[in-house]
Amino acid sequence: MGTVTLRPPPARVQEAVARLRAGTVGNLARALAGNRKALVGSAMLAFFAFCALFPGVLAADDPNAEIYARGAAPSAAHLLGTTSYGQDVFSQLIWGTRQSLVIAVVVGGLATVLSVAIGVTAAYLGGIADDVLSLFTDVFLVIPAFPLIVVIAAYSKNGGDTILIAVLVATGWSYGARQLRSQALSLRSRDFLVAAKLRGERRWRIVVFEILPTMTSLIVANFLGAALYAVLAAAGLQFIGLGNPSSMSWGTMLYWAENNEALQAGMPLWAVMPGVAIAMLGGAFSLLNFAFDEIGNPALRPVRRARGRRHP
Questions:
Q1: Is residue 175 a part of any domain in this protein?
Q2: Higher-pLDDT residue of 217, 308
Q3: Is 88 a member of any domain?
Q4: What pLDDT band is residue 156 in, cutting at 50, 70 and 90?
Q5: Is residue 115 a contact partner of residue 212, using CB atoms and an 8 Å limit?
Q6: What is the CATH number of the domain that holds 210?
Q7: Distance between CA 266 and CA 194 in Å, rounded?
Q8: How many CB atoms lie within 10 A of CB 225?
Q9: Maximum pairwise Cα distance, the chain
């Protein structure tokens, strides 16, 4: 009885796989360009990125300088008025964008890396590794996140932004890992993965270069969801005093505005504008998240009516 020799797929198959992989980014870019939610969300996010990178262009005043009239109303010199300490509210709002956006991007990135590493690895390896990693993920899924965040942040109040980011990452990766595992399980028996195994590629190369490119939209959507979670959770923790009160962010602005009773003292913009900024940044991440959901799931795309006259 002769032996069966498994040959690698022909060159044309490998070329087709390479073209499919190279076209993924282009298709994604074209899909985003044709999605209104993606365009609006990208424009809003670009504005906040500009404020974070170049705050001095829009607000030249020192946000911590207590040199102005206290509790002043909005004017040409102070667009949003001043605080009860004599600080310019508009400068604080612009300069506070940097920390809020950095926390969102760092937490979103680290949580996504952890989700991908655990979710995709569990699906591809299967067996005992899948059982252990899935159990680990389920444990974090059932833990009530915000009470845990409050407890940890309260005990590590002096740890600064590093502790805050670590807590948000630890509580924000599990849902994405479950989604990515489910998607990777549906890809495990596809022809292009079988072809990669026949070529003798190593497991890590199959995961990185074969599986992950086909999950780009889902990975980006998980990043956006984790970033949105980080924006809201970080602002909530800073508002209740569990962040660093001396840092410049929208959450600490709300903290000091609430402590000084800004609404009752006739300084409503001190309390309102940070909340509006948080809502707008969260809206930018949400719009992009919805757009990637529509790209990855055609059933969620809106039905557009055909233009033109109807013919009888």
A1: yes
A2: 217
A3: no
A4: low
A5: no
A6: 1.10.3720.10
A7: 68
A8: 24
A9: 96
Q: Does an H or E element contain 43, and which?
A: helix 36-53
Instruction: Retrieve residue 54's tokens.
Output: 């170049």
Report whether 238 contacts 246 (CB < 8 A).
Answer: no
CA distances from 111 to 26, 80, 108 (A): 26, 35, 5
Q: Which domain holds residue 151?
A: 16-55+97-298
The residue type at 69: A
Tokens of 293: 């959901």
- Total number of domains in the chain: 1
C-alpha distances (whole Å) from 126 to each of 99, 112, 201, 213, 266 are 40, 21, 18, 20, 61
What phi-psi label fits residue 5: left (phi over 0), alpha (psi between -120 and 50 degrees) or beta? beta
Is residue 305 very low, low, confident or very high in pLDDT (cuts 50, 70, 90)? very low
158-205 per-position pLDDT tens digit:
566 787 888 888 888 888 888 888 888 877 767 666 676 666 667 677
Residue with tokens 């939610």: 37
